[in-house]
Amino acid sequence: MTLFHFGNCFALAYFPYFITYKCSGLSEYNAFWRCVQAGATYLCVQLCKMLFLATFFPTWEGAVGAYDFIGEFMKATVDLADLLGLHLVMSRNAGKGEYKIMVAAMGWATAELVMSRCLPLWVGARGIEFDWKYIQMSIDSNISLVHYMAVAALVWMWTRYDLPTHYRLPVTVLLGLSMYKAFLMDCFVHIFIMGSWTALLLKAVITGVLSLSCLTLFVSLVHGN
Amino acid sequence: MLEEAGEVFDNMLKASFPLTFIVFLPAVLLLVSPLQAEAAHEFTVYRMQHYDLQGQSYGTRNSVLNTEARTVQADVLSRRCVLMRLADFSFEQYQKALRQSAGAVVIILPPNMAALPQDIVQQFMDIEPEMLSMETQVPVYFAVEDEELLSIYEQTLAASASQGTSSAAEVLLHTATANGFQMVTSGAQSKAVSDWLVTSVEGRLTGLGAEDLPTIAIVAHYDSFGVAPWLSYGADSNGSGVTILLELARLFSRLYTYKRTHAGYNLLFFASGGGKFNYQGTKRWLEDHLDHTDSSLLQDNVAFVLCLDTLGNGDTLHLHVSKPPREGTLQHAFLRELEMIISSQFPEVKFSMVHKKINLAEDTLAWEHERFAIRRLPAFTVSHLESHRSGHRNSILDLRWKVDTQVLARNTRIIAEALTRVIYNLTEKAAPSDLQIFTQQMQVQKEQLDAVMQWLTGQPRAAQLVDKDSSLLSTLEYYMSRYLKDVKFYHVKADKRDPEFVFYDQLKQTMNAYRVKPAIFDLLLALCIAAYLGLSYFAVQNFGLLYKLVQRVSWKPKQQ
């Protein structure tokens, strides 16, 4: 619509990241370059994923409007590389668990925000046509910040050598859930033909529940033993 | 103060976490109501006439448009694009919009014009010349309705109608939920087309006999006219005239191929262009024939010129003359034959002669025969209309369904029979008045008429659109050269210094309707986002509380 509208969307998308960085104490650790490194790792991982997908998953030429469940499932499985990447970032940083998790998640999510949402916002939200999808996209970026924090925490817990055996199962289940979250959401939206706002709300709720369970596990793991 | 606010927030967090989490998003979600976001709609619009004739400007003078849409019900129309539907269109509303200095007018035509009630058709036909008679500074466009355009119209109508009657809160809510539309045309500003050629086609059948045989010219202009050039299909005016002209060419070419029926008259067929612009094509044709060449058929011995105009409907026929024919002339003989044939063979047709003197003070000539009468050639026009002022001749609603093929065939027969009786002098040879010549092998072919009509009305034939290489003209030439000899084109170009007619381009454009929101909506959204960011700031700031809460909850079972 106007530059003002772009400003609105931009603020909605980026300020929560800024706030999180400033208030979580990351800025006091001088963690900026570490976050940038995490972002660079994100880029590498995405490149590898794309190469892999392009090589082994030819474009599906099915009927228009149909949903390729198996293909999408396989693609979601490739997202395993994200978990590896997060682990890589965390293993190269020394420090407390929370610090490692925050650096990895912030770098990762910010890199995603810059790479995948900056351009559409710049092109779309400034156009004449008004569309709610840019506001939705900005809200979605906030959700994905929470999502990556939870995933980073889960990866950290899973890779700990001193993880008690009775924690192993819930952590693995949660990891699997968050990895296939996007795929499951897509299926759900497709089957129940949901509007974009309902889908967004559902995504927020699911991410909230996942991160809350993750936080509970984390808290009891850190302070439990 | 911030601490106090923080405390309140802490308490809220302590009460239940999911509640606060769910408060953030729905706060934004509720303010922005769940509307389906649609892409911009793109549709074709046809601009109103834009031309100068004899130094006078007509129609809309502008083609660029970039304004927000409204309907006439809105309070303020200035610099807005006013949408109107043909079904509830009236000249008063149109004038009201222009008086309030509207930025543009878009008139939405129904997709199926044939289904329009007769009174609306009549009303619009009366309005059309009035719209064109005045010069309009803002662009006026016509669009054909489709589902999306109708939905845009209805949303705009709802938004326009609710203005000024609601409270401030309602207005605020309205800005968030309602859609505005920004109408944008993609084309450039209209400019005069230089060196436009108006083309006419001539063909002839030479009579049998000596050098200076009398000539009968049969003339019909092929171009159409309406409030928007791209919508002018001109079925009755003057597709019907051209159809009859071509059928007469076919019939007489058959008569002229046999020596026994080869008459002593030259027949000159002329499909003129620019007929709706004061008969420019005819004017040039006459100048070429009378002033420039040494000998031509029109110079020596012209029996009469028969103009065909608007003959596809109704049970009346009128012979328009500018001077009543004198007794003993061929003109008079033709009139007598017409009367006799109609009274003896087609009693359902009402026939009359209409006498109207040429008014040189008027801007345009009334009928095509006046062009010839000015040059002292005996001429008349046959038409089913009683007056040249009828809106019927200049309407975009003059479509294929306005022409009845039965009537067209009957009129062709009447004219053909009368012409034949004059050419072969049958009355003086004591042929009976109900002698039917064009029957059996020689009969008027309805399929042929229908096909020609279909072809003519298959495309808009406004003078601005038929350029000299257009398929319409080449097909017309091809058709005429099948039956006639010496078929050739005549071109008219307006004088550079003092042009008699000037056409303008950008008559068809693509218009985009962009969904937009008012500026106040952006402010409202900015407030909501600021509130949300404030909330997330507190949430992050006090994350420790959540942490402790979870710690307490998850430890309790173990202590028991």
Describe this structure as you would to a colleague.
Chain A has 225 residues and is mainly alpha-helical. Chain A has one domain. Chain A is built from nine helices and no strands. In chain A, helix 2 packs across helix 5 (97-125). Chain A starts with a helix and ends with a helix. The relative contact order of chain A is 0.13. Chain B has 560 residues and is an alpha/beta fold. Chain B has two domains: 41-191 and 507-521; 197-493, Aminopeptidase, CATH 3.40.630. Chain B has an eight-stranded mixed sheet with strand order 15-14-16-13-11-12-10-17. In chain B, strands 1-8-6-5-4-9-19 form a seven-stranded mixed barrel. A four-stranded mixed sheet of chain B has the order 7-3-2-18, covered by helices on one side. In chain B, helix 2 (17-31) runs antiparallel to helix 15, helix 7 crosses helix 12 and helix 7 (235-255) runs parallel beside helix 14. In chain B, 40% of the residues are buried. The chains are: A mainly alpha (225), B alpha/beta (560). At the A-B interface, helix 1, helix 6 and helix 9 of A face helix 2, strand 19, helix 15 and helix 16 of B. Chain B: This is Nicalin. Chain B: Residues 215-372 form the Peptidase M28 domain. Chain B: The chain crosses the membrane at residues 12-32, 519-540.
